[in-house]
Amino acid sequence: MNKNDIKLIFIVLLIVILLFSLSLLRKEANVANVYYENDLILKIDLNINNTYEVEGYNGKVVIEVLNNKIRVVEENSPYHLCSKQGFIDKSGESIICLPNKIIIELPNNELDTEVS
Amino acid sequence: MIMKKILLILILLLSGCSKQEYSKNLFYMDTIINIKLYNVSESKANEAFNEIEKLYEKYDNLTNFYNENSELSKLNKDVNYEMSNELFDLIKIGYEWSLKTDGLLNINIGNLTKIWHDFRENPVDLPNLDNVKIEKLKIENNKILNDKVTIDLGSIVKGYVTEKAGNYLESIGIDYYLINAGGNVKAGKSNKGYYNIGIASPINNETFEIVQDENISVVTSGGYERFYEYNGVMYHHIIDPNTLYPANNMKSVTVIGEDSGLCDILSTTLFLMDIDEGKEFIKNYDVKVIWFTNDNEIIKSDNYE
Q1: Residue A34 lies in a domain
Q2: How far B180 CA lies from chain A's nearest CA (Å)?
Q3: How many Å lie between the alpha carbon of A43 and the closest alpha carbon of chain B?
Q4: Model pTM above 0.80
């Protein structure tokens, strides 16, 4: 093993540690992904209380973030199921506004999918 | 020299991170259908997404009870309507299960499911069910013998089409996939040897069980999103043809097995049975079952590890 090899191992190790810590950071991030059909249209930071407006199939969908929880407060649909659902805050949970084709997802790194 | 080596290793590392995964959402059958494909090229993934969309769209157009242009609606208006073989195949499956379950799984209760559907849309007074008649489907020599039918295939079709979608993917060489059609999960092979498929609690939607497996189907009946409350009583969309009321034997039941179509039918059937009866019933089938009781207890079938 010459000097260059040791350098190489060192640099690769450094990169691996860097990538690993980046992936850890991602897990801790408190984020909600908002999709329209298949397109990610908004990433929402759940650490900041705020309201957001996105455009759904039937018009405006209003989303509120309050104390690290997220909910839909206003949308145009026959039964308002996604407004009635209320707040979600756990990774893996989602709000689906079917008539509006809006999906709010709290990413879960442990689950590949879920039935309910 | 050393830079080249670093570059090479970096490329290897990064390619390991960005494993090819394609995901698509479809909106049919009053639900959201998510399809994930792994280890495929983009063009092949898109081809597969298109074909699967056609499949769900086709069966939605065939079987949608609330779309008056669907073939099923035409049959419900006129029992002599010349339906396609695809629709008849589904109806025959429903008929066979009605025989196997003594009419407990009865697809010919569209008149009743519609009453409860309308009540859910406008829950003012509990529906009057005095004039509701339930008739079993009669089929002989590939012909429906009833004078009139009101068939609702809601308990069958999602699992059936999802099974077809999975089989299609395997037929074109895509073995690594995960389909979730509104709670009907069909999983193919997995790169890590298993998928983590969560089962959500019907009371708070939190994951209470994780199924770790590949080449598996998981279907839940009951559950958090399909209950609705009226005057403090919880009602469900799965209606018992014997009582004419939404079944309330349990809060949810999950069936884990190979065939998504079978799991879908069994989960509805088990939801209509009391738990002890269900435990006996599933001994004839190679599936595992988790019941979530009205007392919030979790009961697993004897073969569950």
Answers
A1: yes
A2: 7
A3: 18
A4: yes
